[in-house]
Design a protein that fits this description.
The longest helix has 18 residues. This protein is α+β, with helices and mostly antiparallel strands. It contains ten helices and 20 strands. Helix 3 runs parallel beside helix 5 and helix 4 crosses helix 5.
Length: 389
């Protein structure tokens, strides 16, 4: 495990077994027999965590493949950071097991687990140079001095900060400090990289730039990575799979496209991206009534029932709309929210019970059509994009 990345500055360093070459490739795991099921790199089973009467995690089960980039996404207090800390051994689960690379690590102390970690607060040692910060875990492992120097130089180039080894953390920007923290986490070539909201303390432009660099670096190294974030855009842009969490449970696991386009619960639909939520009534024959208007949908019902319709703004079309198209209605624009190259336009439709619905429209389209607050606008709902709960 990367001891340097684990502890906050000032903590004592536990003894670690020496390694002969910190930059050497990790030994490939034994190949499973032909036809045998491949075990996941990381497997969590029945993870539960209680703090007194409060249950932070409830029976969490998850499998992560080697080389995956997985994001734990959810609101504050959902349990995502607690789960990351349990994987790291910084918290002890109340129940459940953890296996990594075929080894049961459920009760192992942090120093005996194979990972590097980057904290939100960087956790760099302010009294050490950049080079010494990166080398800290290697020194604890008694790696030869020459190998340490070569590995530090290699990592500083890898994170885009060559020649910065003699500087101190206070001389670096927030983004540069986080790059150094990332280099330190990777110094011992861990099998698992844990990122605890690593970008939340940075400004918007730096966050976008650094998340792209982290993703590129992860692909280059092939290291299995778990990142905790509450930022939907961040998770959608970098993850192979997203684990959406809420109140200590996993709501959905899927690719970014699956989570965004096919949410399996109302919470996921509402939390990930912008969404319209309309009240309606579903009738047999795939007939959906919203207010006084009937729409076609791809859901059916044996008997009438009340439903909530979840529909993203981009799935409400302003064009092209042809004569005879189904699911067309008219509404009045009552709000235009300027968002740069496009606007979020709110429309009130009397025939839908005056329920407001929002749609994305480009500045060019608004100008071409001469649309403003009070304008009438025809819109079309896509039946295949409606999610009913």
């Amino acid at each position: 495990m990367n001891v340097a990345a684990l502890r906050e500055p000032g903590a004592a360093a536990p003894a670690a077994a020496p390694v002969s070459d910190a930059g050497a490739s990790r030994r490939a795991p034994a190949q499973a027999p032909a036809g045998a099921a491949r075990a996941p790199f990381l497997a969590l089973a029945g993870i539960r965590k209680s703090f007194g009467a409060f249950t932070a995690l409830q029976d969490v089960a998850l499998e992560i493949e080697k080389g995956e980039f997985v994001c734990f996404l959810g609101p504050s207090g959902c349990g995502k950071t607690t789960l990351l800390r349990i994987i790291a051994g910084l918290e002890t689960q109340t129940a459940g097991s953890i296996r990594q690379a075929g080894r049961d690590i459920s009760v192992l102390p942090p120093a005996e687990r194979d990972y590097g970690i980057v904290f939100q607060s960087y956790a760099l040692f302010p009294n050490l140079t950049v080079a010494d910060n990166v080398a800290y875990g290697l020194v604890n492992r008694k790696v030869p001095r020459r190998a340490i120097a070569e590995r530090v130089e290699e990592l500083l180039k890898l994170v885009g900060l060559p020649g910065s080894g003699t500087k101190f953390p206070a001389q670096l920007s927030g983004g540069q400090q986080q790059r150094i923290a990332l280099a330190r986490a990777l110094a011992t070539a861990p099998g698992l990289l844990l990122l605890d909201e690593p970008l939340s303390a940075l400004d918007a432009q730096e966050r976008v730039r650094l998340r792209q660099e982290i993703r590129s670096l992860q692909r280059k190294l092939g290291v299995t990575t778990i990142m905790v974030t509450h930022d939907q855009e961040e998770a959608l842009s970098v993850a192979d799979r997203i684990v959406v969490m809420n109140q200590g449970v996993i709501e959905q696991v899927g690719t970014p496209m699956q989570v965004y386009r096919d949410p399996t619960t109302p919470f996921v639909a509402d939390f990930v991206g912008k969404i319209n939520v309309l009240s309606g009534r579903l009738h047999p024959g795939r007939n959906l009534w919203i207010g006084e208007s009937r729409f076609e949908c791809e859901h059916d019902a044996e008997c009438e029932r009340d439903v909530k319709i979840y529909l993203r703004p981009e799935d409400v079309l302003a064009r092209p709309i042809a004569d005879g198209d189904a699911n067309v209605f008219h509404g009045t624009i009552d709000k235009i929210e300027f968002l740069g190259s496009y606007c979020l336009v709110r429309v009130a439709a009397e025939a839908m019970g005056a329920q407001p619905i929002t749609v994305y429209l480009s500045l060019n389209y608004l100008a071409e059509q001469g649309l403003e607050i009070g304008s009438r606008l025809p819109l079309r709902l896509l039946p295949e994009r409606m999610r009913l709960f």
